[in-house]
Amino acid sequence: MQLLTGRLRGALRAAVAVVLLCVALPALWLSPAEAAAPQPEARQQVSQAAAQVLTWTADNGMTAYKDAPTTAVAGPTTIVFENSMATGSTFGMTHTLTFDTTTPGYNHDVTVNIIASPYDADGGRHEVQVNLTPGTYRFFCAIPGHQMVGELVVTAGGSTDTTAPQVSANVSGEKDADGNYVGSATVTVSASDTESGVDRVEYALDNGAFTTYSAPVSVNTAGSHTVQYRATDKAGNVSPAGSVSFKVVAPPAKDTTAPQVSANLSGEKDADGNYVGSATVTISASDSESGVDTVEYSLDSQPFALYSKALTVDQPGAHRVSYRATDKAGNTSAVASVTFTVVVPPAKDTTAPQVSAQVSGDKDADGNYVGLATVTVSATDTESGVDKVEYALDGAAFATYSAPVSVNKTGSHTVQYRATDKAGNTSPAGSVSFTVVAPPAKDTTAPQVSAQVSGDKDADGNYVGSATVTVSASDTESGVATVEYSLDGQPFGLYSAPVAVKQAGAHTVSYRATDKAGNASDVASVTFKVVAPEQKDTTPPLVSGQVSGDKDADGNYVGSATVTVSASDTESGVDRVEYALDSGAFATYSAPVSVNTAGSHTVQYRATDKAGNTSPAGSVTFKVVAPPAKDTTAPQVSAQVSGDKDTNGNYVGSATVTISASDSESGVDTVEYSLDSQPFALYSKALTVDQPGAHRVSYRATDKAGNTSAVASVTFTVVVPPAKDTTAPQVSAGVSGTKDADGNYVGLATVTVSATDSESGVDKVEYALDGAAFAAYTAPVSVNKTGSHTVQYRATDKAGNTSPAGSVTFKVVVPEQKDTTAPQVSAQLSGSMDWAWNYVGSATLTISATDGESGVATVEYSLDGQPFALYSKPVAVGQPGAHTVSYRATDKAGNTSNVGTAKFNVVGAGPGSDCTKPGKDKGCKDD
């Protein structure tokens, strides 16, 4: 009976195990054969080479395998897992041998998941063929609640590993045009070892100590950097240190300027400026900071669309194309637009051009062209317009007409002509005929020319009152071209009618003629005298005197003075002029009188006409002074550059050069300048230079004695003025201080105002507290008066633009009494648990803290004795094993709670251990 009971108990256990496995296996695991079933060819190769056998055994225990290997050599291996009555598994408990393929730090190249039970078909003993590689494998039992786990270290088989790992590094990140990394650079280190395997990788930043490499290294400190790296394999071989060098630069300032965008219209226009048939809109955008991201357009108020190529509009009517651009920083330009009208193209042109021709040149009496005839062709087309004009001379092929056609070959000629318009219509050919004759023999004989004087004569043969000269010329060959005459030695003028001479006195008229061949006759002349009609002259001449010469500052003549006497008489004429110097006797005046004796002088003068009338004596008085010593010293000269300067000392928009010269002896005569090596020019006023670029103005001065200063120069640079700043500064304010739970500031609030202006720059910042007048902001504003407050703020840039006033509102409250009580802190664990109250896969710890006085400032935790870290969200622990989490909280008054602890176990989540899925039959329970 006892034996039967034992057998029955065993049978029941087996039945329960079989039932559980029948339910669980389809969803969770493959069969032992399926778990490690290589392809037939691979299985054969492994079987042939599998010289190593590793055996795991299990018994009734749930915390460790009965036997498990810890080391092996790489290569083909037979893995045996036995969970049988023979190994001590007398309860009929099912175990698995599962290799971890997910936890970082272990080999994942072998998949083993053997399920064994003393009552399965193989009696609990199973084996699979695998190929192990150097490294560490983690194995465990995947049955929920079982804590069987271990590691298998595999080394390279055959010989000792003496080769260091291969290691390399790569730098990545955003680069600027110089190859520098903008903001940060990331160094990724890779290592491999085909023998014992990589044990650890290390790096050192900028000659610091080597430290373990576990993830890519981010370097964000601006400057030049070097990262060294090395790797060690499991045999202890260390690679030589490699290095990568790079430079990190600060990212550029944020782009707040929208792109520049413009549009251009093109197409065929009519006389009214409308586009015929279609118009093409080409949009261009540029952004010198972050760059253009997108360009958009809207046709006739339709939704904006992405612009990728020129837009052609062929719908007749008035149109508006609006456009804008956005840069890569998100700044969008203001919407601009172009307007235009498209009209229907005119009906097809079927009318040929109008075309005509004109012959020109010198003709003879018979209408023939002498020596040369020129044919000029004209064409018009009021529809599509003239495309080309052609001509043909004397039956030759038509050729393009581009200029009047000259024909100098003697004989009869015919020129045909025609025109074609842009629609392809060609006019009927027209023609002109003409004859070119040789020019006559060259004329080398001058014209015959003569003159005749006529008029009333007195008894002496003189012409009374006037004389008329008539000139006659003839040329029997080329003909007379021009006749010229000259009266009393004056320049020759063209003769076109008889010349009347009324001026009393002796006269000579010279004359000559030129024929059409250019032959000029010799100059001939006639001489005669005109006398006035009888009438007694009783009026003396008009006479005046004028003094000239160099004067000094007092009006005295320096060195000498010249007296010039002028007299006129409109009746009988001036007979003589006389002068007297300094009360001396009158003498005949025939030329200007020069007086060079130093002292005061008076010159009297008078004139007598031919009727004997003498004018009253006139006089001029003046003073002659000795000339100063000769000036041999050049003038003093200097130049001054003025204008608005930028911070680099360049002149913005224009520079003005003012040149000054002085000479204390003879005085400055001229000042000259040369701009950028051009020829010297006379300087008369300040010189303004507005052409952008570097310039040199050279200058010199010359005095009245002819002395010229050495050339001096000034250099300067003119730059284009910046666009006018019409944008107000950006201004913001922040309030800082200690807040209570209601957000009020305890005891004191500080308002900090910030302003920026990327164009002309910030000139001033102002603030106003609680409605008071605006005052200059120079430092953060502290407000400690209890109550509600409003601080307004604004900024003005150097171009005078003032931002709209912004404001911040806050409340200051009386500080509470000092908090001396530490916060309350607690922790809660959550996750899926197995039958043994272990957390399966992971456990999540949620920490809560409260403080009824100053409030919680920080919450911290420590996992398994590590340094305390700031707690900001629930902590998930997935590493299998026993864990202790310590936690504490600190309030805003600095009080720290006692350290609390939470202890728990995490077990691996192997295949089939997903406790989050419905069904308690999987051996899990929710916490």
Task: Tell me briefly what this model is.
Helices cover about 5% and strands about 50% of the residues. It is built from three helices and 74 strands.
Describe this structure in words.
This protein has 927 residues and is mainly beta. It has 9 domains: 2-155, Immunoglobulin-like, CATH 2.60.40; 166-249, Immunoglobulin-like, CATH 2.60.40.10; 260-343, Immunoglobulin-like (Sandwich), CATH 2.60.40.10; 354-437, Immunoglobulins (Immunoglobulin-like, Sandwich), CATH 2.60.40.10; 448-531, Immunoglobulins (Immunoglobulin-like, Sandwich); 542-625, Sandwich (Immunoglobulin-like); 636-719, Immunoglobulin-like; 730-813, Immunoglobulins (Immunoglobulin-like); and more. It is 4% helix and 48% strand. The protein has 3 helices and 74 strands. The strands form 19 sheets. It has a 5-stranded mixed sheet with strand order 2-8-7-4-5. A 5-stranded mixed sheet has the order 10-16-15-12-13, with no helix packed on it. A 5-stranded mixed sheet has the order 18-24-23-20-21, with no helix packed on it. The protein is elongated and about 185 Å long. Residues 1-50 and 911-923 have low confidence and may be disordered.
- Largest sheet, spatial ordering of strands: 2-8-7-4-5
Output the structural class: mainly beta
Number of helices: 3
Number of strands: 74
Number of domains: 9
Cα end-to-end separation: 43 Å
Key structural traits:
927 residues; 5-stranded mixed beta sheet; Immunoglobulin-like; single chain; elongated; Ig_E-set; 9 domains; mainly beta; 74 strands; 3 helices; 48% strand
